[in-house]
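Late entry, zinc ion complex.
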Amino acid sequence: MPKKLFIICGLFLICVVGFFAFGIRYVKTHPEKITSFIEQVTLPYKIAKLASQEPDATILMPVYGTKVSGITDTWGAPRGNDRTHEGQDIFATKGTPVFSGTSGYVLYKGDVELGGNAMYIIGSGARRYYYAHLDRFADGIHIGQSVTPDTVIGYVGNTGNAETTPPHLHFGMYAHREALNPLPLLVNR
Ligand SMILES: [Zn+2]
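Prediction complete; structure with ligand written out below:
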C-alpha cells in the first residue's frame, strides 16, 4: 500500500512540475497571449463601466482621408425586399485605413454573413459601433483591446454582401438592440 501511494505521489509531482515548467515557458514565449487573455476576461467589467457613462456626442470620421460631406445619406434606404439600410456607407479605395470613430473596446471581430470581415467596438454609454466589409483587420487587433480614435482597426474592402459593390465601409451604430443613424454625429478628423 505505501508503495502504491508513493508511485501516485510521484506521478502527481511530475505532473505539477511539468505543468509549471510548460506554463512558465509559454508565458515567456507568448506574452501577448497573456495580455489579450486578461483583456478578454476583464471585458465584462469594462462594459459595465462604459454603460454608466454618457454616450459620445460626436464620432470622428473613421475612414482616412474622407470627409463627412462626401457621404450620401442612405439611412433607411430599402435593401432587398425585407430590409432597410441600418447605417451609412463610406466609399474609399480598397486598403484605405479605417480608424475607430470613438474610444472603446473591441467587442467582436470576425467573418459575418452580410458584413464580411466585421468588427464591433463598444464605447461610452455601451453604444456599439459596427464596421463592416473590411478587406482585412489591422495586425494584432483582438477582442478586449482598448482602442481610441487614433487606432487603425482595419482596411476598407468589399467583403460579405458588398462583393459586387465598390469598396466601402458600412458604418452602423446601435444602442441596446436599436439601430441609430450615425451620420448626425459624424465629424471630420
Ligand atoms: Zn451599408
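The first strand starts at residue 59 and ends at 60. Will revisit in the morning.
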